[in-house]
């Protein structure tokens, strides 16, 4: 009965697709030939907070990217578990690094143990849906699509399967860095950090295995606001490290789904902020705003040893919802820059 | 219950004794509004429980062409029934657990063998809107949360038996909280009704398009069903995807 209702629409869709396909066949052929001549390499993806090595190539390549979608139960804060939906088993998903002009062949595999379908929308893609239509896959399936990385910048990718806010709230986001053709200035340390908001029926640290809370997500009432998917992902033994005088570059993104970040590092001033993940930078910045589905690249140099603290400077999020991380800095003291002892004050 | 007792006594005698229960039909506020917010649903009968491993085994024994390894790859990929020990042995899975990893083609053939067919999306959605006491429980947040709970649990290697959760008001079991289910018209679920689309088909798996084409945004559980079905081809099979059948009203 309803099958009959569907059919006319289906036919129209098929016809449209055919016409479009026929029209673009010539252009596609030429493009495919060019891509066929490119050297082929497989991208080395990294789990956060690590960043793939800078690209030394000076010419385009065809880059194979192999990503999986995995549903994993893991601690969101010590004593409380959550079922994360992920790209590659981590929150955020594995980081991808390519060069402007590269042709990216993305293979997405949804593990057979998954419960739900997933796909990927990369903001680095110029084209409707960013890859999502080609990659919608049921558990146990895989899909491939190809795009050309036309624009340099730091781009968020995420799952775009309905209901999309739920897939993102469960941790399905990551970033792809498209280096400009001229490359990027070398630095001493690079790290990959993303902020995300999580919604559970129980309050922060309520214990047990907490499910996703749909109503709290709709109300944008986060239980957790986190860096890299756990309250302790960048603290204690997981703290980021740097030395005094290192040039540090953070690739920072906001997965959302709902909450924008006010990213600040307590004890440092950003020398450069590549606003919104683009090519132009602002200088001497204390705090930068990163919208959900957006990014920034910040650079700074730790001047003295000790702990720098990464926060969302909407500080209830840092101290009550988990948005806190540590960068442990080693090296020589520089009292002329920063005197640690309170003794100087006592002498007066 | 009566049928179950008979089956127990005459295991082979109740081959096609699956229970079908009448559903009177009515007007459905659908998550996929094609021609308006509601669609009429004519009366039909629905299998009270999903097809089980034991039932599907009998089907492939009677119809060897549908055994794994024999079914053409056009109709069933390599994962078809490959969780079974062999083509004719469903161990280590339970006899009364729902059969999964069956293609749409195989499921359709099974239903035909019962003189039935796969339900349309609206027939499935109509029956699945009910809880134990109400024909349409979808506005109840507690009911929705209960259903959503299943999606939040990891897949299990061995599914429990059918019929363990209470039946809904029609006497139909397991429309939620056990498996995904094939529907007859799954490949027609790509539609949009966004009038701005001007005939261009936007497909629902893309987040923006989904918000334009889906009528029941709060009903996450149903949206996930639609998303899963939209991800499939007819020869695909998935470990958590089974089916049930429907017949015309008597």
TrEMBL record, chain B:
Q: Which UniProt keywords apply?
A: Signal
* Domain Sulfatase-modifying factor enzyme-like, residue spans: 38-247
Question: What are the GO MF terms of this UniProt record?
Answer: formylglycine-generating oxidase activity
Under Gene3D superfamilies, the record lists: paralog of FGE (formylglycine-generating enzyme) (3.90.1580.10)
Q: Which residues form a coiled coil?
A: none
Query: Would you indicate the residue range of the signal peptide?
Result: 1-17
The record, for InterPro entries, names:
CTDL_fold, Sulfatase_Mod_Factor_Kinase, SUMF_dom, SUMF_sf
Q: Among its keywords, does the record have Signal?
A: yes
Q: Origin, by domain of life?
A: Bacteria
Protein's name according to its UniProt entry: Formylglycine-generating enzyme family protein
Q: What is the lineage of its organism?
A: Bacteria, Pseudomonadati, Pseudomonadota, Betaproteobacteria, Neisseriales
